[in-house]
Amino acid sequence: HIDAQLQWLSATANDPDLHSRISLANISKAFLKLDAGGNVIAVSGINTASWPSQEIDFGKTMIGLSQYHGTMAWTWWLGWFAYTAVKEGDLELSTKLLAWLANAQADPKLRGKGFGKYISEVYDTNGKIITGAYVSETPFL
Fold it and tell me: How far apart, in Å, are the Cα atoms of 85 and each of 60, 89, 121?
């Protein structure tokens, strides 16, 4: 999980030896997909194709949330990721993460539905707010 990696960077900030074992670059490589220009085009909560199906409740699968705690992206750790990038001195990465989030919120398909004015709870890997049988909590406070 990406949040465990970010927690490691926070918890080891005062121990250079431990801190160096997980880098922001490696976290980015494992959890982000970039286009040719280096812009974030996909964000994943886990660094594998999907959460193991045998561990997913049938009800979650039926309403389109099989990857709720898997590949879906959560705003709270996206913000934490951007903040960590700033703390680690990577303002470019932080800006790209926040741009990905802003693009997700500004999805033209959601105009008139009230999503554009708030931060939503969870997104699919490609930055789309979840709006199927389950609707992403918006505003997510």
Answer: 32, 6, 21
* Per-residue confidence (pLDDT) for residue 51, from 0 to 100: 76
Cα(6)–Cα(64) distance, rounded to whole angstroms?
27
Residues 45, 78: contact at Cβ < 8 Å?
no
Could you tell me the sign of the dihedral formed by the alpha carbons of 49, 30, 46, 133, in that order? negative
Please answer whether residues 132 and 63 qualify as being in contact, where contact means their C-beta atoms are separated by less than 8 angstroms.
yes
Report the distance separating Cα 72 and Cα 4, nearest Å.
15
Contact 31, 43 (CB under 8 A): yes
- Reported pTM: 0.80
**All residues at 6 or more sequence positions from 80 whose CB lies less than 8 Å from its CB, including other chains:** 3, 6
**Percent of the chain having pLDDT more than 70?**
82
Side chain identity at 62, as an amino acid letter? M
54-86 pLDDT, tens digit each: 888 888 788 777 777 778 888 888 889 999 999
DSSP annotation of 121: S
Instruction: Return the closest-CA partner of residue 135 out of 108, 115, 116.
Output: 115
Task: Quote the mean pLDDT of the chain.
Answer: 82
